[in-house]
Design a protein that fits this description.
- There is one protein chain.
- This protein has helices spanning 5-13, 55-62, 71-81, 124-133, 154-165, 168-171, 174-177, 185-194, 201-209, 212-223, 235-243, 245-258, 271-289, 294-297, 300-309, 312-320, 322-334, 340-348, 352-362, 367-374, 387-400, 406-409, 416-441; strands at residues 19-21, 28-38, 41-48, 51-53, 67-68, 95-100, 108-112, 119-123, 137-139, 142-144.
- With 443 residues, the chain is an alpha/beta fold.
- The strands form two sheets. Strands 1, 2, 3, 5, 6, 7, 8 and 9 form an eight-stranded mixed sheet that branches.
- Helix 9 (201-209) crosses helix 11 (235-243), helix 13 packs across helix 21 and helix 16 crosses helix 17 (322-334).
- The protein is elongated and about 80 Å long.
Length: 443
């Protein structure tokens, strides 16, 4: 574990006292550093990892609209400074330093050194010296993150969120503001088939074929190299020869719902990333189910549908709160240390998964699917129908290589190492095919 040479040189020349650490220290406040820019210049911002940086507070304080520094600009900066990632201790001549006021008053701090995996533990007097030496400015820019919602009353929370985000005049017409989008007719017909034990292949094929875009996508999927089939010319071919009835039904339902709401092409929340993540999650969830005993494998098509819809709430958020959607995207970029749900709770008062559960309840989707989407990040709240929430949450953790806690995998007949290998192998071997499928989905 070594410090970048420029960081070490600066600390030693100024006789700063510090220790090196590779992980969190219980009595130390972990600090986050981000680089921001606008047309007038750049900023380095230090704030607690327990807080969220609020870009609109910056705009109100300085009258400037900052966004996260571009990847290309960051790379040039890192090369110039000889670091691998942001460093919270190195003064940078062309970056003005801001420190959130909530940082003050702690005894010890952990700060990124600029070398991946290496942290600096610094006492308060040394941090104050660092701030002074870098001409840092202390301001109020952040808010402490809100706790996870555990009351389950999503409808009330969504209504309160709309009230807080709209003007008084609009609040008086709240029913119009929170107009429930209608379920697409194709999805409605497919949903009826899901509950019909007598449903036939011909009936499902006829429903899909009446939607030209959906018809083309199902045939394209069944013909893709991912499934290793050729000569698929109809939905019936896709059902009978390649995918099976349940898989086509749930695939068509997920695609139909996903295309029922528009999503702006906006930063990390754009349409192409949405469908690529959906395809990866759906196929990975199915692959994990196939590692399980037979009676669990019967849940494969439901797991696939949950994967396709796992981020459906993002579409609903863009639909219900279009004026705030870009703001959410900018804050996701500026707060990489926080999960998306935490940021949404801070800004909107409601999360995308709550929105998804609320709308799907109005659309009379099955309780298992609703529970999977709503509780994928807190499966302990799902109740008896917790297989799909646990599976979906585990799938996302494995795809993002996030730590998997014991309670996350508890109740699933899987070993963590083989499960991670399964997902990694899928992405390595089938990644290009999944990306091609995602491009087709986004058309």
């Amino acid at each position: 574990m070594t410090l970048p040479w420029r960081v070490k040189k600066f600390l030693d020349e100024h006789a700063y006292r510090y220790d090196l650490a590779t992980q969190a220290v219980p009595d130390a406040l972990r600090l986050q550093v981000v680089y921001l820019e606008d047309s007038l210049g750049t900023l380095q911002v230090l704030f607690p990892a327990t807080h969220m940086l609020r870009l609109h507070s910056l705009a109100e304080t300085f009258g400037r609209n900052f966004t996260i520094m571009s990847a290309a600009h960051c790379l040039r900066l890192f090369r110039r400074l000889g670091i691998q990632q942001p460093s919270g201790v190195l003064p940078i001549a062309d970056l003005h330093t801001l420190v959130d006021a909530s940082v003050l008053g702690h005894a010890h701090y952990l700060i990124d050194s600029g070398d991946q995996g290496c942290l600096l533990r610094i006492d308060q007097p040394e941090l104050m010296r660092l701030i002074h030496d870098s001409d840092g400015e202390t301001v109020h820019l952040c808010s402490a993150v809100l706790p996870v919602d555990r009351d389950g009353d999503d409808a009330s929370r969504i209504m309160r969120s709309v009230e807080s985000l709209t003007s008084l005049r609009i609040r008086q017409r709240l029913e119009e503001t929170l107009e429930i989008p209608p379920m697409p007719e194709t999805a409605r017909q497919i949903l009826r088939l899901r509950t019909d034990p007598e449903a036939r292949v011909e009936t499902l094929a006829a429903v899909i074929e009446r939607d030209p875009a959906l018809n083309a996508q199902v045939i394209c999927w069944a013909s893709s190299p991912f499934y290793g089939s050729t000569g698929v010319h109809s939905v019936e071919d896709a059902i009978m020869r390649v995918l099976g009835f349940d898989m086509v039904l749930n695939m068509a339902l997920g695609l139909s719902l996903g295309h029922s709401l528009s999503l702006p092409q906006d930063g990390p929340c754009g349409l192409a990333p949405y469908w690529e993540q959906a395809a990866q999650t759906a196929q990975s969830a199915l692959a994990l189910v196939q590692l399980m005993p037979r009676h669990f494998r019967l849940q494969g098509s439901k797991a696939y549908l949950c994967g396709l819809l796992h981020n459906f709430g993002q579409l609903i958020s863009a639909h219900l709160f279009p004026g705030h959607f870009s703001m959410v995207c900018r804050h996701i970029e500026a707060n990489p240390h926080l999960d998306v749900e935490t940021i949404e709770r801070q800004l909107l008062g409601v999360t995308r998964h709550q929105l998804a559960a609320w709308l799907l309840q109005h659309w009379h989707m099955g309780a298992e699917i609703i529970a999977a989407l709503r509780y994928q990040n807190c499966p302990d709240l799902a109740g008896p129908q917790d297989f799909l929430p646990r599976l979906l949450g585990l799938t996302r953790c494995l795809l993002e290589h996030r730590p998997v806690s014991a309670d996350r995998i508890a109740g699933l007949p899987l070993e963590l190492a083989p499960a991670q290998d399964c997902v990694d192998n899928l992405l390595r071997e089938q990644g290009p095919d999944l990306r091609a499928m995602a491009r087709q989905m986004s058309l």
